[in-house]
Amino acid sequence: MNREPDLAATDTQEAFVAFERVQKSYDGETLVVKDLNLDMPKGEFLTMLGPSGSGKTTCLMMLAGFETATHGEIKLGGKPINNIPPHKRGIGMVFQNYALFPHMTVAENLSFPLEVRKISKSEREEKIRRALDMVQMGEFGGRRPAQLSGGQQQRIALARALVFEPELVLMDEPLGALDKQLREHMQFEITNLAHELGITVVYVTHDQTEALTMSDRVAVFNDGKIQQLAAPDVLYESPENSFVAQFIGENNTLLGTIKEIRNEYAVVELDDGELIDCKPVNVSKPGERTLISIRPERVEFNKERLQEGAHTLKAEVLEFIYMGDIFRTRLRVAGKDDFIIKTRNAPDQRRLKPGEQIEIGWLPDDCRALDA
Amino acid sequence: MSRLSSSGPQTADAPTPEDAFHETAALSDRDREPRHGAAADGPMLAADGTPLKKSLARALRAQKLRALALIAPLLIFVLVTFIAPIADMLFRSIENQIVQDTLPRTTAVVQDWNPDTGEPPSEAVYEALYRDLFLAAEARRHTRLGQRLNYEETGMSSLFRGTGRDVDDFGEANVETLEDLDDRWEEAAFWVELTSGEGGEGVVDAARERYMRLADLSSRSPLGDVWCAVKGVFAETCDVAPEDVDLGFSLSGTFAETFPRTAEAYAEFAVFMALEEGETVADDEPWEAVYVALDQDLRALSPEELAAYDGPNADALRAAQEALAEVPPVDFRAAFLNSDEDWADIDNWRTIQTYSPPYTTGYFLNAVDMQKTPEGPALRDADERIYGLLFQRTMFMSLVITFSCILLGYPVAWILANLPMRQANLLLILVLLPFWTSLLVRTSAWKVMLQQQGVINDVLVWLGLVADESRLIMINNQFGTIVAMTHILLPFMILPLYSVMQTIPPSYLRAAKSLGATNWTAFWRVYFPQTVPGIGAGSILVFILAIGYYITPEIVGGTTGTFISNRIAYHISSSLNWGLAAALGTILLVVVLVLYWAYDKIVGIDNVKLGG
Ligand SMILES: Nc1ncnc2c1ncn2[C@@H]1O[C@H](COP(=O)(O)OP(=O)(O)OP(=O)(O)O)[C@@H](O)[C@H]1O
Ligand SMILES: [Mg+2]
Asked: Locate the ABC transporter domain: which residues (chain A) (predicted)?
């Protein structure tokens, strides 16, 4: 197999879940998943992140056994599972809409996977109790799902997916329907639980904050392909292509041409003729068009904090937004007026005024030259 | 209700001289203003000082009235076409006024008769029957009563019809004596002179009311008055209401006192002439019953009493009394027996006595194969019981049909709910197709299919599964009814099932499988329970429709496959025993309501879903 280097390099352990050159087409005309390769070690929390329709759910469904791959192989614990029916795969699953059985009480819902495994009554009760306590829902065993709030239902769905102690749990946008506060709380609970129990989790979301805060690694999906698979900080700070850069976090982009590549830095000539220093990522030779990406919080307008000899750009302040913990300022830079900078709300921080002319700059390491 | 709002007009700023004007205005405003927050001091007040409840009610009233106006047409329609007929049916199943209306005097006196003596009733009862029957026969109402009583006791119909023909001739000898005595007795004018006067209105009014009840003439309702007033505007006239028709005759009070029977009979004659013939007593000599009544009255008076009578034509009356003394009094019992031996039959009289009250349980007893006996209600003989069997059969077959519909409809609904939209719609059209064909056509098609020389038998014979001489009998029996009705009622099962299944997301089944359930367990434990409301709704629909079905069993049911509704139809259109039909219908209604109630208790009616 000709694996992409970074997939194999992430760990030396035997892969617990493996997608090998998996393709999927629903209609025989378009590929929804194109050549998917993915290895997951045991105990990893991996998030699939991507825009709507990028094939995340499809991947999950193939893994759970509800869709068959058109091509390629999916392995679980080293064994191919293409021909194992879903109920024999032993994979816990939390559905986007929870899929709690409405005609059963919470306890009955949790009891269901144990009953079909023919576990004795006393053992069942013990496991249900423990699972409910785990998600702090011990009081609610007698309720119907309809009598629970969204967050409570979500926790029950989680408990149900975990109660039969699967080694692999799939979660498809489980927090999609919750409000911000509850979502953050649940994110915390889920990651905690996953680490405590040592289970392997494949988590699907299109909320990038969620992906960054929860996961060990994030797989950014687009167009049926994994664009980048990396740990959250790597993903954020070193996006490998312009899609990832733009999809993850807030990002300023400027178009330009590589003028020269010196040492590990490149000089880019912006379209209006200004020069800046960047770190080349997937550009190689001068003359190439490039999209450079700078995170708003890495932009500096205080000259004293800039490196000696760093290139600076002229900017005009268009808008100043007070956001409490940070200030968000919109600038016109190199003819584009959607350049954002973020500054911390500190006592000595200057509040820029619209109309002000300033100079901005950054460390060359923070400015990445990507494919255009 | 914060205190803040009650101090509303005042601001936090201290009052300044410039503010003084506004301040006082605000203060006086505040005095007039109701205290919004004063919950403890009485009801909440609205801005204009009226209680909040009242002003809310007023605000909603217009809205409610508009809503009511919108549904009014439907409400009226439902009341007129649904509630009223059902109420009428319920009423008819116990109503029995016809006996009292037709035989008012007989039913009054026959109550004193004790059937246990084994003797027919006394002469007084026969006399009362003569007077009732005479009037009823003239008005041609006696056959109706005969028919009614015939439901309870066979032979009553012909008894009344036969005697109705003869009743004119009862007391013939006495009538002739009177007529032979003096030609004037045959003159209408003479009778008018004899009876006319003032003060007998009570007798006439009673006669008029009796006749109106007998002939089913209703007095005009207030609504009718309004209608007539409207017609009057367009210069159209209404028929005069029966209670207002002018008789052209006024009864003398003294005559009525001295000759009560004659006065009564003559008053009835007068009413009959006016209401039925549109004439007056002056146009015709009175009917025989009046002569017989006069004979009775004259015999009841002593010559001295008669001498004291000083009305017109008193001399003729005295002569008549003398002449009639020569002939024996009318023997009513003999006259009736002469007309028909059966008038001595205790059972016939018992029937009349039992069914005298205006309301009866008789129809209901009949409907459950019981009858009234001297010992109270009792089951009929085994060979006369039919309704119990029919009710049982109706229930049983409706249940079988319901179950067949579930069995056949469930998979279809499932496929419908799981197919892609296009195919599902196509299939749905196929399901609905039967609705677009006439019920009669569909049922007749089954006749063609199932008969012994029909398509199915032909195919079976051709396949060699059935010998030609032993073709299956599949029509005109229960099997035929069940097959045809299952087919006809199937859509009523599929549609609610389909709409319920459509709302069950496939993720439930997937969740069950991901939790380790096999396909069957996932279906049985997770999918099926969620479709129960649909099964419930479909079953209620199918069962209730089946239990009252009529056309299909009538066509394909033969004798063993008919339902109770066929019997009801028979009583409505052929035997005309509407009371019994109403009682059967009422029982059917009660059975359905009880089943509905039981369903509610066991499954819960809020578990019934017809859709989303
Ligand atoms: N059952 C199906 N039949 C045909 N096409 C499908 C089916 N399910 C998904 N698709 C298509 O496959 C593509 C990927 O769908 P998928 O559900 O995997 O997206 P997703 O990444 O989960 O998106 P979202 O974030 O909106 O859930 C979409 O273009 C979708 O239209
Ligand atoms: Mg999805």
From this structure: 17-248
Number of domains in chain A: 2
- Would you say residue B42 has pLDDT above 70? no
Same domain assignment for residues A71 and A216? yes
Q: What's the average model confidence in pLDDT over B108-126?
A: 90
Q: Hey, are the CB atoms on B513 and A95 less than 8 Å from each other? A: no
Q: Which of B505, B511, B521 sits opposite A116 (nearest CB)?
A: B521
Report whether residue A284 contacts ligand 1, using a CB cutoff of 6 Å.
no
Question: Given its phi and psi angles, is residue A263 left (phi above 0), alpha (psi -120 to 50 degrees) or beta?
Answer: left
Ligand 1 pocket member A228 (CB < 6 A)? no
Q: Report pLDDT digits (tens) over A274-321.
A: 888 888 888 778 888 888 888 898 888 887 777 776 778 889 999 999
Per-residue pLDDT at B282: 86
The pLDDT tens digits of the residues spanning A337-355 come to 889 999 888 888 888 889 8
pLDDT of residue A121: 94
What the block records as the tokens of B378 is 């009792």
pTM of the entire structure?
Answer: 0.73
Give A241→chain B minimum CA distance, Å: 36
Identify the CA nearest to A155 among candidates A186, A123, A177: A186
ipTM of the complex: 0.78
B331-337's contacts with Cβ under 8 Å and 24+ in sequence apart are B331/B123, B332/B123, B332/B126, B332/B127, B332/B129, B332/B130, B332/B170, B333/B120, B333/B123, B333/B126, B335/B126, B335/B130, B335/B170, B335/B171, B336/B126, B336/B129, B336/B130, B336/B163, B336/B170
Q: State the pLDDT confidence band at B220, using cuts at 50, 70 and 90.
A: confident
Please name the residue of chain A whose CA is at the shortest distance from the CA of residue B525. A112
Residues A162, A90 share a domain: yes
Residues A338, A236 share a domain: no
Here the tokens at position B557 are 């049911």
CATH of the domain at A158: 3.40.50.300
User: A235 to each of A34, A222, A225, A321, B152, how far by Cα in Å?
Assistant: 21, 15, 16, 27, 97
Q: How many CA atoms lie within 13 A of A309 on its CB side?
A: 0
- Please indicate whether residue A53, judged by its CB atom, sits closer than 6 Å to ligand 1: yes
Residues B300-336 pLDDT 10s: 988 888 888 888 888 889 899 988 888 899 999 999 9
DSSP per position, B168-227 = GGTTHHHHHHHHHH-GGGG-HHHHHHHHB-SB-HHHHHHHHHHHHHHTTPPPPPHHHHHH
